Amino acid sequence: RYIGDWSSDVCSSDLRKNPPIDKTKPLKGIKITIDAGHGGSESGAIGCLGNLEKNTMLEFAKHLERELKHRGAIVFMTREDDSYVGLRDRVDFANDEDSVFLISLHGNALPDDLDPIANNGTEVYYYYNQAKPLADLVLSEITTQTGMNNHKVRQASFALVRNTNALSILIEIGFLINPSDNAKLVDKEFQKKTVGAIADGISNFLKN
Predict the structure, then answer these.
(1) Phi-psi map region of 107: left, alpha, beta (phi>0 left; psi -120 to 50 alpha)
(2) Do residues 119 and 186 touch, judged by C-beta distance below 8 A?
(3) How far is it, in rounded angstroms, from Cα 121 to Cα 201?
(4) For 117-172, what is each residue's pLDDT tens digit?
(5) Residue 135 CA to chain centroid, in angstroms?
(6) pTM of the complete model beyond 0.85
(7) Once rounded to an integer, what is the mean pLDDT over residues 51-74?
(8) Is it the case that residue 3 has pLDDT exceeding 60?
(9) Which residues are paired to 126 by β-bridges?
């Protein structure tokens, strides 16, 4: 998914220095870009209930935007409606806004030859080693707070986690092709609980 087709001059040593953190309000003043996967002509995966990944992830993104702003973060959205945004444009946007974090939200899918019932849960991708603790903490909070299966943290050369100056992770919140996961993904209360867990994971990373 989203494997970049361009090279970048960004490398792990170029990642930003730690911003000053208020331990009582760790997200206050922190710039965060939220990326709702897909959009426009790029629908992404289709859920068991006929929901499109692009729409479901935009719902999560808007909930996450509200949650992070409530905690004092400065939030940017790569898209706020059903519009197409190219991969490079998303990365450039986060870099131009000088974001500390880029959080990309997706719903998972599988090749046709794999069992959609046997595969379920949340997985988080990172590329740079500096982002792995963030991925670990976010996944831990999601699985603890929502009961989602831990589908592991994984390193991958995806454009949205490789070409950014920000610490970047890509969250596959659940499998759209798994009936149980998909039912949760379209549930408003689950969405709110999940974004709270993501915000907690980012906060824990900053405090540590």
Answers:
(1) beta
(2) no
(3) 17
(4) 889 999 999 999 999 999 999 999 999 999 999 999 999 999 999 989 999 999 99
(5) 10
(6) yes
(7) 98
(8) no
(9) 155
Average pLDDT over residues 82-89: 97
Q: What angle do CA 208, 126, 64 make, to 5 degrees?
A: 70
SS3 call for 106: strand
Q: Is 39 left (phi over 0), alpha (psi -120 to 50) or beta?
A: left
122-126, strands of its sheet edge to edge: 74-77, 31-36, 101-108, 167-175, 122-126, 150-155
**Hunting for tokens 């994971």 — which residue is that?**
201
- Secondary structure letter of residue 38 according to DSSP: -
Question: In this structure, which amino acid lies at residue 112?
Answer: D
Tokens read off for 116: 């959609």
Alpha-carbon span 147 to 54, nearest angstrom: 24
Report residue 163 as tokens.
Answer: 């070409």
User: Phi and psi (nearest 5°) for 204?
Assistant: -60, -40
108 forms bridges with which residues in the sheet?
175
